[in-house]
Queue: 2 jobs
Job 1
Amino acid sequence: MVGRWWSRPSRQEALPVGGSPQATGVRSVAAGGDIGVVVTGDGNNVYQVAAPPRVASSDYRYQVESLAATEFHGRHDELAAMAAFSVAPGDVDTGVHAYWRWLAPAWAGKTALMAAFVLAPPPEVDVVSFFITSRLNRQNDRTAFCEVVHRQFYALLGEEEPAVTEHTREESLLAAMARTAALCKRRGRRLVLVVDGLDEDRGVLAGPDSHSIAALLPRSPSHGMRVIVAGRPHPPVPDDVPASHSLRESLIDRWLTPSSFAAAVRREAEDSLLRMLNAGGLARALLGLVTAAGGGLTAADLATLAGTRSRLVELELSTVTGAPSGFGHLIGLPARLVAGLRAYTCWPTRRSSGALLIS
Ligand SMILES: Nc1ncnc2c1ncn2[C@@H]1O[C@H](COP(=O)(O)OP(=O)(O)OP(=O)(O)O)[C@@H](O)[C@H]1O
Ligand SMILES: [Mg+2]
């Protein structure tokens, strides 16, 4: 009995955590479960019921599914290599042996591969993941990383997620990471942290103002934890990653051969992109808006910005891109096309390609 209560002297009852009071008086009401406070009517007592802990749960899998290839093909060797690395025996608690980094240019199929691994990890592995991307709304900085990954750790811990502030979230994340790794180890399992798209981190700046996701990754993962990251070879490791960090070691690098399936998707995307550019009018304007925003816009957002209706935006995108019906495809494809356009070019040209599109 850990509930607390106040009452008239004549009647005193304690309630268990999450207990439900009985309302017995005139005009009385009762409520219970995990709401925390209960007030009943005339002739009843006033209780404060201790709320039971709300165990954290994560729905991040849905985000991963939205980034995964519609139909994933091949990559058996790569997935097997990732699995072998994840479950390799021994605590390699120091440095480079706990890290694996896929490097490949744009459109090679890194995200598709990482998503395939996260959605079907080896049976003895618990995966926590984050995909740094502008294809999804506000999923490309340290704040998003902390929030998303923190919740996944607490879901694995089976505990209520503590409230954090912008000043405490990073320390809380690191503590949760170490505790989760230790718990997995005690259970005879292995914690693997998967982070895709290190090159897409918006928090990376030149110099001391950089606050990258990479710098939050543990220098020496504890309790046998492994870390698998992926990204393009450029830009280089952010300035705020310490000199002694494993991410600065080329020993962790594995070069990913571009997928022929990804190449086919890329050709299709290029054709769609050209169609949108040639179509002019609303299609071209939409492409410009998506480029300028860097992704994450809904049909309603685009409609507002373009001064038109959402339905027209959806129709335009489905017509010009030939995208299959479905909201996700309508909005996701142009964003991916723009990502593709950026991918061809080096940085200075990327900017000018965006300017060209909205001009
Ligand atoms: N093995 C595969 N089977 C089927 N489709 C794939 C495969 N690999 C990649 N694709 C598709 O090819 C496209 C490009 O792949 P992906 O986004 O994974 O590339 P990337 O290397 O992550 O590129 P970027 O550097 O721009 O992030 C996506 O539409 C993806 O779904
Ligand atoms: Mg990617």
Job 2
Amino acid sequence: MVERLAIEGGRPVREEPLPPPYPGALVMGEEEKRALLEVIESRSPFRYYGPAPQGKVSEFEATVAARLGVAHALAVTSGTAALKVALVALGVGPGAEVVVPAYTFIACVSAVVSARAVPVFAEVDETMNLSPADLESRITRRTRAIMPVHLQGVPCDMDAIMEIADRHGIPVLEDCAQSLGATWRGREVGAIGRIGVFSLQMNKLVTAGEGGFLVTDDRDLFLRAVRAHDHGYLREFSGGTPFLGENHRMSELAGALGVVQMGKLDGMLAAMKRAKRAIVEGIRGIDGLTLRPVPEGAEDIGTSVIFFVPTAKKATRFIAALDAENVGASAMYGGTVYDANPQVKDMRTATPEGCPFTCSLYQGRVSYDHGICPRAEDLAGRLVYIPLAPTFTDRDVEDVVRAVGKVAAHVPD
Ligand SMILES: Cc1ncc(COP(=O)(O)O)c(C=O)c1O
């Protein structure tokens, strides 16, 4: 019997949607409740003082520092805040350029602009991460940081990126918002560049609803980050030169959630890697699909399965057909790059003066027009993204494999 696609009126592969892509939130339970209650009952939700501070944020920082094998960790209010604080700590400001990958979440761009510097896009390759082969051509004498993004749990080629960055004397800020627990040649991502940044927003493995943190081995950089996130204060530390900062301090409530969730990280990683391995094995041989490669030396965390189909038109049809089978898929960032966002393409800032793009200290010229990163544009359009969750059952895994096979066999080019 010929199977009909659900989108054409056939029976879907499954009746219910897959578990949603909220890994850490899906495994929240009594432990998180108890930790939050401790903070509430102490009536001390602020990390630095109160009737009986519980030290939750400090404990969270110590936990992530130990886990990642770094000297310093600083918890903040979001991944975007962590990016901004890291950029400020690195001394990135007016006149500077920061190289970011053409395919990433918009926060990478807005954090650079918020630090009053100018983002410069570089190509991604078929790993959907920053292309080392393209990176060097985007470096100018104004480049003050390189921001590789370990997209969807797959580490960038950090050997190649670090070699180029070191040769030019430019610091690397790793954006690990989507990749806590991923490793490159056995080292945790975030601990390879000068500074690494993570998010605790709800789509992430470890979540506090909102939140973020940064890690570094460089004490001076850490102290600058502490000042940048807390009005220029150091409180528990000393050293360096004061400057005006902002407030990106984490609350004890978020810290309490973070500590408990870190305890669940290994369990989530094991479940997600297992699910991803089985799905990849199951769909590897399907005609017309090209799996997103994981570079040699990279250990990814299994948060998603990504593959490419031959055309953007087919990707759109493929995604709609998978959705109808109740296997949620998407194009990720709309299957587009920077130029689909009018605020990026037209360099729209919050006020009409247009700083940092119009800043007299900025001596470069940058364009975000279609065509500046053609490889990224092509790959983004042909990508199919299936998010996974740590609660996937064997049945869920089988359904994904069956649905991909069914859709691949029937969706026209
Ligand atoms: C690659 C990347 N960078 C930065 C961020 C910003 O993190 P947050 O949402 O916590 O501000 C995200 C969030 O989704 C992200 O995916």
